[in-house]
Amino acid sequence: MSDTRRKAKARAQARKKGSMKGMSVKSGDKRPTKSGAGMTKKGVEKYRRQNPGSNLKTAVTEKNPSGSRAARRKSYCARSAGQMKKFPKAAKDPNSRLRQARKRWRC
Question: Which of 4, 29, 30, 58 stands the most exposed, by the fewest C-beta atoms within 10 Å?
Fold first, then answer.
């Protein structure tokens, strides 16, 4: 594959809907693992600008959410439990982004 074609493919991948390319802890889009991993409000706003029509939201962190927020938490916890099975190395590491995010969501 030629260099120009490879670069074009990389640009297309970055523009692809749902791409998290360009999101980093350093830019303030993601929370560091020490403070619970996951995305910050700034990161969610940036993602929604890059992906119009998306419905991404920040973590549900309160102790007793009600209604749709409780359902979101339950759904996230179920999905992330599957990630724990898929990535056993991350599941064993207490400082992994996965484990820290689950802790933040109170899973």
Answer: 4
Question: Which DSSP string corresponds to 40-61?
Answer: -HHHHHHHHHHSTT--------
Q: Say which residue, 24 or 18, is predicted with more confidence.
A: 24
Whole-model pTM: value is 0.73
Mean pLDDT of the chain: 88
CA dist 24 and 1 (Å) reads 29
Query: How far are the Cα atoms of 10, 13, 33 from residue 2, in angstroms, in the given order?
Result: 12, 17, 38
DSSP assignment, residue 107?
A: -
